[in-house]
Task: inverse folding
């Protein structure tokens, strides 16, 4: 008996030491492979992609939970992830199996109906890995595989049924400030990712990998090199460290086989540190997903000086303008403008740009191209102390807006009246260290007109045909989370430091339901159906930039700020009782 | 544009190597094994081939070894990078400097791991608590790990008015006068201290770090 115990212990120890991942529990039975057809036309009850559909609407066609019964929504199960920091991944569901990712590059498979853990994957991260953004925004799905982009800059393929690691590819060097946080985009067996690291002076890129082999298929830099179109928008060697990260999943138009990706800010922050228009920073790129070739681009604003990443890609929708239907790209920009662009075979055309929050930087827009002119006094420069609105976190940061084809309204989780101060400085780049070009001790938020505003967070509903705001719901402090509209005429969003998860009438903006969670919610909600019952799911786990804004508001002494939002991730799943 | 990725990226035959990378990595833990992991990763990135280097060999790599008693310090960045930090290099109340420990005999700079990076600052000894004073030089030099205990970012910010270290990543703040105690933000514990002594007027490590360097609870 004793010997058997020892042998068992030995096996257990050797198993622990050899196991590449902490896969566990019971695995998945009858897994439904994810095909291109299913990604293009997902079943109403499933959520197979970061924003559910390629058009990026972040919308669920499920309507069993609706304005009439949402008041009876109750939690049916919760699952504590055991991980701190920002849980920004939507709970994604494939035929009753839920996949969530957490900070520290974990993936959990859960029975979506019961909350039973099916398996857990834990990536062992390097001991010297620093994490500016300790988060992850979800998996990509293809056939019976899952794909995870990690903070130590690997792309990992997992067996969706067991969590077993199939391959792990080093994509670049985390020691130089490259890292990955996005949910991979999957198109026809190509796994497309984009890098983070603009704050470390990386040269951004988007790359595709073969799902089966993990081989790189193409890599397109977001900053053109010598001889490439757009390189002349940079001076000297600035392009080598110019930022242009691409850290949010793109959207996709299957009809034209075009992927649309948003590109981040230029590095370092002050524009006079990198003179020129700085293509393709703060732009949207139209890419051929087969080759990585840039088909077209549109730059929202040139020579970025405000850290206004425009990484959130535009939503693909049809809008009526000037008596005609426009195949539009709609983007509530971090720069505080709501952009409507037109996608055509010839290029990306400008349709309109209007501020959706207070913005004091743009003096005008060219009516033909949308190119802004700037108010010089709100343009950060080296050696200047400048305040501008909105703050570096923008009118809306990375979080997803949502569009309901039923109400034909766009819903934007916005922040208004929050401005920022930036004192530009010139510093040599040091590998692996923040390279912001700003005096860190003077990097503050401030309130518009230096007074406590009536509101900061604002859930806005826009009629994109009339290009008009039709309702809004205001919050006393920030709103920092993705929103989801459903065919039940509901809009779900968390994002406030009071830890509430809320549902609004999509038609009127009336608050219909709210439930307090363990922490704050910054990730996106999802809707799914199992055995005829509709569920709503979300991860609650405050951290990263939501926490940073919270810290800044706390230091400003803004009343109503909850300075201590507890951390720790929990998956919440709700249904009507 | 198209494919012009760095040739270091592991393509084609790297499949098997990558499988090995993740497998080798997974068995690493704290301590000397981590050197193994780092080297394996570096190898994979540099050549696309992962070589299993014995942990014992790398544990002995002096560049990777944590600061040792007797180590002097060199500037990590700036015009004086890699030159030894002496008494005259840092004034009381001046911003901290990022430094690497260096073995004064072999002249090996221990820059093989970011976790060896140190914050050196000079403070008014009258304002130090007893523990911090016991770790300081007579001239007021104190040293701490530069790796934030929250998410391992280099702690490069400095509030001169309050003499507080500030981590720019997530706003954690540490007071070097009281053992780098956390005074704001999400860091779960103080920065580990590196007790000092004075040799020929220069700050020298008196022993190793007082606690575990790295993120998370001790």
Result:
């Amino acid at each position: 008996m004793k010997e058997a115990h020892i042998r068992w212990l030995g096996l257990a120890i050797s198993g622990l030491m050899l196991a590449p991942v902490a896969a566990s529990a019971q695995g998945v039975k009858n897994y439904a492979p994810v095909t291109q057809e299913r990604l293009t036309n997902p079943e109403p009850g499933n959520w197979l992609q970061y924003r559910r559909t390629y058009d990026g609407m972040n919308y669920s066609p499920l309507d069993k939970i609706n304005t009439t019964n949402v008041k009876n929504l109750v939690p049916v199960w919760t699952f504590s992830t055991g991980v701190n920091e920002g849980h920004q991944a939507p709970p994604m569901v494939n035929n009753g199996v839920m996949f969530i990712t957490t900070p520290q590059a974990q993936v959990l498979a859960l029975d979506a109906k019961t909350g039973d853990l099916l398996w857990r994957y834990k990536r062992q991260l390097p001991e010297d890995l620093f994490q500016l953004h300790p988060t992850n925004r979800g998996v990509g799905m293809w056939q019976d595989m899952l794909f995870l982009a990690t903070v130590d800059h690997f792309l990992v393929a997992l067996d969706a049924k067991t969590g077993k690691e199939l391959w792990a590819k080093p994509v670049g060097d985390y020691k130089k400030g490259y890292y990955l946080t996005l949910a991979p985009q999957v198109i026809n067996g190509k796994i497309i990712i984009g890098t983070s690291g603009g704050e470390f002076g990386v040269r951004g890129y988007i790359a595709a990998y073969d799902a089966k082999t993990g081989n790189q298929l193409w890599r397109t830099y977001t900053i053109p090199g010598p001889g490439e179109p757009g390189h002349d928008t940079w001076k000297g060697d600035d392009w080598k460290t110019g930022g242009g990260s691409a850290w949010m999943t793109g959207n996709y138009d299957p009809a034209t086989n075009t992927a649309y990706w948003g590109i981040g800010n230029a590095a370092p922050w002050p524009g006079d540190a990198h003179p020129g228009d700085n293509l393709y920073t703060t732009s949207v790129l139209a890419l051929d997903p087969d080759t990585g070739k840039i088909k077209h681009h549109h730059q929202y604003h040139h020579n970025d000086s405000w850290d206004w990443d425009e990484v959130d890609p535009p939503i693909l929708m049809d809008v009526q303008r000037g008596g005609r239907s426009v195949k539009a790209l709609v983007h509530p920009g971090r720069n505080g403008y709501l952009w409507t662009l037109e996608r055509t075979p010839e290029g990306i055309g400008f349709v309109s740009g209007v501020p959706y929050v207070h913005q004091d930087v743009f003096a005008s827009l060219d009516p033909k191209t949308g190119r802004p002119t700037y108010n010089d006094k709100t343009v950060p420069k080296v050696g200047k102390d400048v305040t501008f609105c909105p703050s570096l976190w923008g009118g809306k940061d990375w979080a997803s807006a949502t569009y309901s084809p039923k109400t034909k309204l766009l819903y934007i989780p916005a922040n208004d009246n929050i401005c920022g101060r930036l004192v530009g400085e010139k510093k040599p780049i040091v590998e692996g260290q923040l390279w912001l070009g700003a005096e860190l001790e003077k990097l503050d938020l401030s309130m518009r007109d230096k007074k406590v505003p009536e509101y900061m967070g604002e859930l806005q509903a826009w009629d994109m045909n009339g290009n008009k705001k039709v309702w809004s719901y205001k919050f006393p402090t920030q709103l920092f989370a993705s929103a989801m509209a459903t065919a039940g005429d509901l809009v779900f969003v968390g994002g406030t430091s009071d830890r509430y998860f809320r549902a609004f009438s999509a038609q009127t903006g009336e608050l219909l339901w709210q439930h307090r969670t363990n922490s704050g919610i910054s990730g996106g909600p999802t809707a799914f159906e199992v055995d005829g019952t509709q569920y709503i799911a979300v991860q609650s786990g405050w951290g990263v930039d939501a926490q940073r804004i919270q810290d800044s508001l706390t230091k400003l002494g803004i009343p109503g700020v909850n300075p201590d939002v507890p951390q720790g991730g929990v998956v919440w799943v709700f249904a009507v009782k | 544009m198209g494919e012009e990725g760095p040739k270091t990226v592991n393509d084609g035959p790297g499949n098997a190597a990558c499988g090995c990378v993740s497998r080798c990595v997974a068995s690493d833990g704290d301590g000397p094994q981590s050197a193994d992991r780092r080297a394996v990763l570096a190898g994979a990135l540099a050549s696309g081939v992962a070589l299993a280097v014995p942990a014992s060999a790398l544990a002995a790599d002096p560049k990777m070894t944590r600061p040792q008693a007797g180590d002097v310090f060199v500037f990590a960045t700036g015009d004086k990078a890699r030159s030894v930090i002496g008494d005259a290099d840092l004034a009381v109340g001046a911003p901290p400097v990022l430094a690497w420990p260096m073995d004064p005999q072999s002249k090996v700079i221990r820059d093989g791991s970011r976790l060896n990076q140190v914050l050196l600052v000079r403070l008014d000894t009258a304002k130090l608590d007893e523990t911090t004073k016991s770790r300081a030089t007579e001239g007021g030099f104190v040293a701490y790990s530069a790796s934030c205990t929250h998410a391992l970012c280099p702690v490069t910010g400095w509030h001169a008015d309050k003499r507080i270290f500030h981590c720019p990543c997530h706003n954690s703040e540490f007071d070097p006068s009281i053992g780098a105690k956390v005074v704001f933000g999400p860091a779960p514990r103080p920065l580990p201290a590196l007790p000092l002594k004075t040799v020929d007027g220069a700050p020298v490590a008196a022993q190793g770090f007082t606690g575990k360097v790295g993120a998370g609870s001790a």
Q: What stands out?
A: Residues 1-20 of chain A have pLDDT under 50 and may be disordered.
